[in-house]
Design a protein that fits this description.
Layout: H1 9-25, H2 29-49, H3 65-77, H4 83-103, H5 108-115, H6 132-140, H7 147-162, H8 166-170, E1 177-178, E2 184-188, E3 194-198, H9 201-214, H10 238-253, H11 257-260, H12 268-279, H13 284-291, H14 300-305, H15 307-317, H16 320-327, H17 340-345
Antiparallel strand pairs: 1-2, 2-3
């Protein structure tokens, strides 16, 4: 153990991401990104706050139990993350040390000390949802004075229509839309599971107008297929999508007193879709299929085929005021030798 403990972290961490997570486990890109973000944060924490050497020179023994505990305290107190996020960061670290135990049994004691760090208990909080008038206030808070306003209106309407998660919105592509008399969109959800969700006619018209007149040209050809782009033509990240939705919710809350009493965030749009579907008379299994919940298993394929039922519910939900807001016309204002942290960020 005396010699093994001085082995570099670099090679093991690269192998963990490229060979173990991607090739052997086949985990989703979102899981890889979450683990990557955790390790980037940990490496930067060690360098900036513990005066440790550059990440490529870290030794296994330096990533010990105390460092992890200090890191968890740091993200809670300094970065002010919630307990749930703290536990997710710890899970990413645990995953690596589980892998290290398999690769190098000599590290067993070292790994067990880190794996013994427990997750914190967290209470289950209820995320609020928007009533119809509150949803209208959120959409009306979007200024249509420039291209980004039209993008954001299309994005929030798409989020409500589909009940998509933020990463599903970020990864939505133009060619996923299937137009016609009964337009639908294919959504790639968690674990690579695909589902089909109907698009209301007003939503489709708004998306088409956005794509035709207001969408910024892609900066990179690789981003040309994505539905929603940033102001510089780059694909939006899931964090950017979350910030866009949250910004308009907070803006609407300033003028809508009932919203101030609720715990609202980007995921609230997804909850709003679910609640409105329920209020519209949708059965629980239809809602699960619509939102892509994993609890629907063998019957999932039949539920996804029941698009007409989903469409009837959606048409019931959309009020005339909502439709007029979507379709209102506005003036066109268009006019591996890399460093470890850098390598991780490119995953």
């Amino acid at each position: 153990m005396s010699e093994v403990r001085y082995r570099r972290l670099n090679g093991y961490l690269r192998s963990f991401f490229k060979e173990y997570l991607q090739a052997q486990r086949g985990v989703s890109s979102n899981t890889i990104q979450s683990y990557r973000d955790t390790w980037c944060l940990l490496l930067r924490y060690g360098i900036e706050h513990k005066k440790m050497p550059r990440a490529e020179d870290w030794r296994i023994y330096q990533v010990d139990r105390q460092l992890i505990l200090d890191f968890l305290t740091y993200i809670e107190e300094e970065r002010r993350v919630c307990i749930r996020t703290r536990n997710l960061r710890l899970a990413a670290i645990h995953a690596f040390f589980h892998y290290l135990r398999i690769c190098e049994p000599e590290f067993d004691f070292h790994c067990l000390r880190i794996l013994s760090i427990p997750s914190k208990k967290t209470c289950h909080t209820i995320i609020g949802f928007l009533e119809s008038d509150e949803l209208l206030s959120v959409l009306q808070s979007i200024s249509l004075q420039n291209r980004l306003g039209y993008r954001d209106l299309a994005l929030l309407t798409f989020a409500y229509n589909t009940g998509a998660r933020v990463h599903e919105i970020a990864n939505a592509c133009k060619n996923h839309i299937i137009p016609g008399t009964s337009p639908v969109i294919r959504i790639l959800g968690k674990g690579g599971k695909e589902r089909i969700v109907p698009l209301w006619e007003g939503t489709l018209q708004l998306l088409e107008a956005y794509l035709r007149k207001y969408r910024v040209g892609p900066k990179d050809p690789a981003h040309s297929d994505y539905l929603f782009l940033g102001n510089r033509g780059q694909k939006l990240t899931r964090f950017q999508v979350g910030r866009i939705i949250t910004r308009y919710i907070r803006e609407a809350a300033k003028k809508c007193p009932s919203m101030k009493k609720k715990r609202l965030r980007a995921h609230s749009m997804r909850h709003t879709t679910a609640v409105h579907l329920l209020q519209g008379g949708a059965e629980q299994n239809v809602i699960k299929a619509w939102l892509g919940h994993s609890s629907v298993e063998s019957s999932q394929i039949y539920l996804d085929l029941d698009l007409q039922k989903k469409r009837e519910v959606l048409n019931f939900l959309v009020t005339p005021e909502f439709a007029r807001l979507l379709l209102q016309c506005q003036k066109d204002h268009s006019g591996d030798k890399t460093a470890l942290i850098e390598w991780l960020e490119k995953l």
